[in-house]
Specification:
alpha/beta; D-Maltodextrin-Binding Protein, domain 2; 3 domains; seven-stranded mixed beta sheet; globular
Length: 556
């Protein structure tokens, strides 16, 4: 009996060890590192596990009218009042975010609160100010579209004021400077030393030249929304032709420069996050932000363009009372005590720097933005695949919003790019193979989006794998294209490959994946976008169309 028990226990132990080792080696096999050499093989193996169908192309009717910015803007209440007025006689001021947010980015709020607490009088009436926190580019869209025009506007720099004035709205400068700031190129000390050795000095011109020669990896921000981005755009054009920013020489030079730009961020925050990852040698930033960051260690700051001195503009036909309030507020903000607070918040540095650009007309600035949109991808056109979640959890409002996002957003897709569309639930459907985004492809894209219907489980990562495979084939045919994926989903994956399984493939192919979440698990989507330095948009907000428009403007 004893021998039998010992034999039985031995068999159990052996079986256990065999099972354990089997599980161990199976697991070990699953986590084999994916490299450039084996990525195609590994992708093919994963693709073989996915059920893929091809839909018959359906043409839809395209809308060739100019996009209506006013209709795409959200309600103004989306942008918070950072300081409320304390009297019936007041002015509302749109303020750029670096001075009307919180902490060291809230200097203007401090000024406005102290101004209101003083209970000052104009013509016998107590007066106050109301501050609305809104990015300069977005504020300009509101003002130019006429959807909402405040009494006054203090953008980061004068460029936005020039554009508004050129659009026909009466614009009067109340103060050329509320607080001092400077935009700059933040460059690693190692790269700075290398350029200094090669060029004898490091300034905007030499940095642009080094980028054009592919000697530097640099990113900048969206010139439609970012003050620093717009400033950098015109500075780069100026470096090629200082007499005419829109000349053939300037345009050709910019295209050569842009061909080597690895990253354009929608916001300064996104740019800062990318910089922290160490993928960029240089990037743009305002001095106030640089002054409050860790970038001071290991980086140098090279100022460029026009100063960011937060001018204050009166807008439209204001009453004398409102003009008097604005003048009194500008005088109040200039007090030594308040300017000292600004200094502590990182402002009023580099006061010796003078704008290296002459005044630029608003129409020229608008033309420069359009030039950027049309020319930024001509040397390296985009190949993008839209990956649409049509699972059961997207039924109803989420899927309707997804369709609306794509149908309105597709107007901003550049004609030089190539576009494809797939949809997924438990299985994956190739609704539209990748092709140049001409009128014919646009019609097919509209038809494919319109016909999307929901039902079934959610295999998000399977959809991503199929998109990567499509882009792999496209890059084989057109090696110069830049691949990109846009995933539109609620973020809940319950079928197919896990993110852990596909993460190595995503990293190996280095395809940025932009995620747009509808009633979504935002953290799950952020984890996908962060793999290759892309962005995530929360579509639950009522400004999703405007956000997608800006995203497509930047990337497509």
């Amino acid at each position: 009996m004893k021998k039998f028990l010992i034999a039985s226990i031995s068999i159990v132990v052996i079986v256990f060890l065999l099972v354990y080792l089997g599980v161990y080696f199976t697991s070990a096999k699953k986590v084999v590192k994916i490299t450039d050499k084996n990525k195609n093989e590994k992708l093919a193996k994963m693709i073989s596990d996915i059920s893929i169908t091809k839909a018959k192309p359906i043409k839809g009717q395209i809308d060739l009218t100019t996009p209506d910015v006013a209709s795409e803007l959200p309600d103004i209440s989306k942008f918070p009042i950072s300081v409320k007025n304390t009297s019936d006689s007041f002015v509302e001021i749109f303020s750029s975010t670096e001075k009307s947010s919180d902490g060291k980015n809230g200097w203007l709020n401090t000024v406005a609160n102290e101004f209101n607490n003083e209970k000052l009088n104009v013509n016998g009436k107590q007066v106050s100010v109301k501050i609305r926190n809104i990015a300069s580019g977005t504020a300009t869209d509101f003002i130019k579209s006429g959807k909402y025009v405040p009494d006054a506007f203090t953008p980061s720099n004068e460029l936005w004021g020039q554009m508004i004035a050129a659009d026909g709205l009466k614009t009067e400068i109340v103060s050329k400077r509320l607080v001092g700031n400077v935009p700059g190129i933040v460059i690693s000390k190692a790269k700075y030393d290398a350029l200094n050795k090669s060029y004898g000095k490091v300034d905007t011109k030499t940095i642009v030249e080094a980028m054009t020669k592919n000697e530097l990896s640099m990113g900048y921000t969206d010139p439609f929304t970012s003050s620093t981005g717009l400033n950098f755009l015109v500075t780069a054009l100026n470096s090629f032709d200082s007499k005419n920013l829109l000349s053939d020489t300037a345009v050709k030079g910019f295209q050569s420069f842009q061909a080597n730009v690895p990253f354009i961020a929608s916001t300064t925050l996104q740019m800062s996050d990318a910089a922290k990852s160490g993928v960029l040698d240089a990037f743009v930033l305002e001095y106030q932000t640089y002054n409050n960051s860790d970038f001071k260690n290991g980086y140098k700051f090279i100022p460029f363009g026009v100063r960011h001195d937060s001018p204050l503009y009166a807008l439209g036909e204001l009453s004398k009372e409102k003009m008097d309030i604005l003048k009194k507020f500008a005088e109040f903000a200039n007090q030594n005590s308040l300017q000292s607070i600004a200094k502590n918040d990182g402002f009023n540095g580099l006061d010796q720097y003078k704008s290296e650009l002459n005044s630029i007309e608003g129409n020229t600035l608008t033309a420069a933005q359009k030039l950027w949109k049309g020319k930024k991808n001509t040397s390296n056109p985009i190949a993008a695949v839209f990956v649409a979640d049509v699972s059961g959890s997207m039924d109803g409002k989420p899927l309707n919003e997804l369709k609306e996002s794509l149908l309105k957003g597709q107007k901003y897709l550049g004609r030089d790019n190539s576009i494809g569309l797939i949809s997924y639930s438990a299985d994956v459907t190739i609704n539209l193979p990748i092709a140049k985004y001409d009128a014919n492809q646009q019609s097919k894209f509209v038809g494919a989006v319109t016909s999307l219907d929901s039902g079934g489980d959610t295999a998000t990562n399977d959809g991503i794998l199929v998109a990567i495979n499509m882009l792999k084939d496209e890059m084989k045919k057109n090696p110069n294209v830049r691949p990109m994926i846009f995933v539109l989903t609620d973020g809940e994956t319950n079928h197919g490959h896990s993110l852990k399984t596909v993460k190595g493939i995503i990293k190996a192919y280095k395809v940025p994946i932009y995620t747009i979440g509808y009633n979504a698990n935002i953290k799950a989507l952020e984890s996908i976008s962060s793999i290759n330095e892309a962005a995530n948009i929360n579509a639950d907000s009522d400004d999703v169309i405007y956000k997608i428009r800006n995203l497509f403007n930047v990337q497509l």
